[in-house]
Amino acid sequence: MAINKQQVRTALTHVLHPEMNKDLVTLDMVEDLVVQDSFITFTIDLPEKNTELEHRLKEKCKEAIHKYVDQDAVLDINTAVNISKFRNNEDKGEFPGQGHRQQKNKQEEDEEILSGVKNIIAVASGKGGVGKSTVAVNLACGLARTGAKVGLLDTDIYGPSIPTMLDTHERPNITTDKKLIPMQKYGIRFLSMGLLVDPDQAMIWRGPMVTSAVKQFMQEVEWGELDYLVLDLPPGTGDIQLTLVQTVPLTGAVIVSTPQDVALDDARKGVAMFKKVNVPVLGMVENMAYFIPDDMPDKKYYIFGKHGARNLADKIGTNFLGEIPLEQKVRESGDEGKPIVLGDMDTKSAQAFVELSNNVIQQLAIRNQQEAPTEKIDIKIKP
Ligand SMILES: Nc1ncnc2c1ncn2[C@@H]1O[C@H](COP(=O)(O)OP(=O)(O)O)[C@@H](O)[C@H]1O
Ligand SMILES: [Mg+2]
After folding, report:
1. What is the DSSP letter of 4?
2. Which is an annotated GO molecular function term of this record (predicted)?
């Protein structure tokens, strides 16, 4: 029989905090619980570092789950020091009771975690293969060209391509307090699921595991001070995307599409998804807008149709951020791990990516002046 979250929570009510004399669930110490078949992972939040206690609680949790839920369950129990979560209850000499934690505290917590990041931009597409990662990586490097501090997070767990596009395949290091240190290349900081998880393994992950992993990426990484954090989202507008965009306080979204009708239909869904959850859409990018042959750089062949994304942007009242030509050099630079925007400025594509970056900066400035920061909605993921 499949294990469910409720069973795990119930088992954890048998684990008492030795000093508080209450159980971990009542003390609201269990976070990010994910169950996948017989694999169970969660984090025990603690108000302060206490290695001995962490060890003891982990052991007790294991015992309780093996006894009350499934003796063959495979466990990955993490601990985290979460000062802000418990701070409000210090004077009262107790941890908060379950369910009493206010939404506000949770938001403050997240603000604190990403407090050094000024703008979070999601690069999304309805369809896969339209050049989302190519746009994300060139946008990140294009923003960095202006002297800004930029981070890039590849959340596409099923098809991470940023390691190839930045020619980096080593595992990231970890700080003494167990935070991941982003990799650095071409002046940007970046991380990819592909550097941490074996893609074959990741293929079997379901939505909640992906969301939980991405959440950890946001929270347990030393991003430091950033002007822009660019997120390469997984393609599509399903549950994973919807949960992701609501878990992170996004400043705005950039939607990538090719000019083809099949891609445009999905791009429209993408725009609708962001609007539904009140994330401003900064605009649309038309990738592979026209083909430029290497030997005839002045030619333009509209092989996927002309101005499809530009017209759609007009029609649905969204900004048009620019068109990127289909050029062999874009593909080659992606495969070689050096984004075209950092290469030959004589190419149409490099110029197009610079223009795109400038338009995104401009739209962000307008958005930040006109609207309040996006509020994060913390959805509890159901089993
Ligand atoms: N404008 C372009 N010109 C040439 N090749 C491109 C262009 N955009 C993307 N590609 C290539 O198409 C493939 C898919 O692009 P990618 O960015 O990985 O798409 P996605 O992230 O949407 O799946 C890659 O091999 C990439 O190099
Ligand atoms: Mg991709």
Report:
1. -
2. ATP binding
User: Ligand 1 within 6 A of 324 CB?
Assistant: yes
* Structure-model confidence comparison of residues 97 and 71, the more confident one: 71
Q: Is 207 annotated as a binding residue?
A: no
- Report d(CA 357, CA 145) in Å as an integer: 9
List the domains of the chain with CATH numbers: 5-109 (3.30.300.130), 114-370 (3.40.50.300)
- Cα separation, 183 vs 162, in Å, equals 11
Question: Which residue, 236, 210, 309, 248, is CA-closest to 122?
Answer: 248
Mean local confidence (pLDDT), 15-32: 89
Residues 6 or more apart whose CB falls under 8 angstroms from that of 309 comprise: 257, 258, 259, 264, 267, 284, 285, 286, 289, 320, 323
**Distance between CA 275 and CA 122 in Å, rounded?**
13
Average pLDDT over residues 32-54: 86
Of 331, 340, 355, which is best to mutate to test ligand 1, by the most ligand atoms within 8 angstroms of its C-beta? 331
- The answer to the question of whether 128 is labelled as a binding residue is yes
* DSSP character at residue 382: P
DSSP letters for 111-178? HHHTTTEEEEEEEE-SSTTSSHHHHHHHHHHHHHHTT--EEEEE--TTS--HHHHTT--SPPPB-TTS
Distances (CA, A) of 125 to 89, 155, 192, 261, 319: 43, 13, 18, 14, 15
Element at 207 (helix H, strand E): helix 207-219
Measured distance CA(122)–CA(93) in Å, rounded: 41
* Tokens 């466990």 belong to residue: 75
> For position 182, what pLDDT does the model report?
94
The single residue listed with the structure tokens 């167990």 is: 178
